[in-house]
Amino acid sequence: MKFSRVLAVCLAVVAVLALALAAPAHAQSKPAQANQPRVYLLRGLANIFSLGMDDLATKLRARGIEASVHSYVDLETLTRYAVEQASMGKRRPSPVIIIGHSLGADAAVTMGNRVSAAGVPVPLVVTFDPVTAMTASSKIGKVVNYYQAGGSGKAVSGPRVENIDLTGSGALSHFNIDKAAELHNRVIGMIQRPTRPRAVAAKPVPKPVSAPADSAAAPVAPVATPAAAPSATPATTPASVPAIPAPAAATQSGAVAPVGGTETASAPSAVPTAPAGTGTSN
């Protein structure tokens, strides 16, 4: 009886600990999900000429980015839906990204203006060849407009707009600019916003140990001095005159051997040197 009670208490303690450990992990996953952007793509006329939006949405979903495709005529209802979804059950609204082609590009700018005015962050709007001269709100983080000034496309105005004129870009036209694979890759890169690699601190290079001087490395043989020749006259050199140092002994090859203790070898200092240091679809 006593054993069963002890076992029950132990199981209860284990269950409480398991719940306590699982709760923080669950709580930490929510902010990460809330910060993920939601992408809305808008097709143009008749909802059939902008199938590049479908292709781009498929590429985004394959990378784990939530994306959906809509008709430009759904602008009103889609704007309300985007604001509600971005704010539902969240302390801070999640960001909304809008992409459109042709009439869908016009609607993308309008939708971006309205969603950002509602307090929902709109970090990016991308337009493919809009057919109306639109003005983007300063509340939108950035607007990138791929267009062809020589065709149906129009530039977008606004303080944070980048207009990229693709008039001379090969076979691009209003009907296939939204399908260009290179432009898709650029847009995906802007949405993913890859993090820059952090600089790794270089490890300190140890200083080389200085080589010992020749005089300390090996003993130097005493310098042989020639025997003094007998002088016919007695030495008269006064004691105050300093003696002249004896010449170095010559080797058999004729080279003069260095006098010990005068030559030192300095090791070269090892200094490390730094290495020298997108397009389109409809």
From TrEMBL:
<dbReference type="InterPro" id="IPR029058">
    <property type="entry name" value="AB_hydrolase_fold"/>
</dbReference>
<feature type="signal peptide">
    <location>
        <begin position="1"/>
        <end position="27"/>
    </location>
</feature>
<feature type="region of interest" description="Disordered">
    <location>
        <begin position="249"/>
        <end position="282"/>
    </location>
</feature>
<keyword id="KW-0732">Signal</keyword>
<protein>
    <recommendedName>
        <fullName>Thioesterase domain-containing protein</fullName>
    </recommendedName>
</protein>
